[in-house]
Amino acid sequence: MPTFTTPDGTSIYYKDWGQGQPLVFSHGWPLSADAWEDQMIFLADRGYRCIAHDRRGHGRSGQTWDGNNMDTYADDLAALVTALDLRDAVHIGHSTGGGEVARYIGRHGTSRVAKAVLIGAVPPLMLKTASNPGGLPLSAFDEIRAGVLSDRSQFFRELSMPFYGFNRPGAQVSQGLRDSFWLQGMLAGHKAALDCIRAFSETDFTADLKRFDVPTLVLHGDDDQIVPIGASALLSSKIIRNATLKIYEGAPHGMCSTLKARVNDELLAFLSQGVPAAS
């Protein structure tokens, strides 16, 4: 398996498909790079180099006891960029991965970044605070922690329903997709899965978003039951300079899977903007 080693000695797995301008995908919690395969196959077939890594503690990467926080996630992403010498890259992050992309730009800048995409992403801040009254209360994340600690296997099975909107009337439930979610979640280390809840819920990305100076696309479903749009995309799209916000009516958090054809076409159109037509 292709891996690289971070400065603190952690082995990070990644997949590297296709040739062309690099697209770097950062996945959500508690998943792995496998969550991006629908996008990676589509875009690699259309002339892009698609790279996705398993965040530390997730998937096939090393399960460290420490370092399960956004600063380290961002530094691991920077180490991947350096290891593969990626330039003019487009960074695409879903959910927690959107926070990872934001913190990467906040800590490492955009000298190697051409564009960014945030899909169902957690920035600017999920937690309800005095300055962020639209966020979710701490008790909501305490319940997630309790579920992971009590019986994370059953918790992940149940979480797959609202994640993909399968709990909505008339939804066509894919048991295979639910099983894939569960499998990816169970590949994550228990400590990493637990620590990441604090990372995605209590990290304030406002300052990071203000450092974005590249074209940015923000996609979000208005029926996202995991990362409500009011405390995320509606705010982050205003903080990021000249961001383009596109709201998917009725779409769930896991829309990269349930609406993959639409998301794929959206990404391809955004990637093609500003590229001269072939003569």
From TrEMBL:
It comes from the Bacteria. Keywords: Hydrolase. Coiled coil: none annotated. GO terms for molecular function: hydrolase activity. Residues 22-254 form the AB hydrolase-1 domain. PANTHER family: HYDROLASE, ALPHA/BETA FOLD FAMILY PROTEIN, NON-HEME CHLOROPEROXIDASE. Belongs to the AB hydrolase superfamily. Bacterial non-heme haloperoxidase / perhydrolase family. This is Alpha/beta hydrolase.
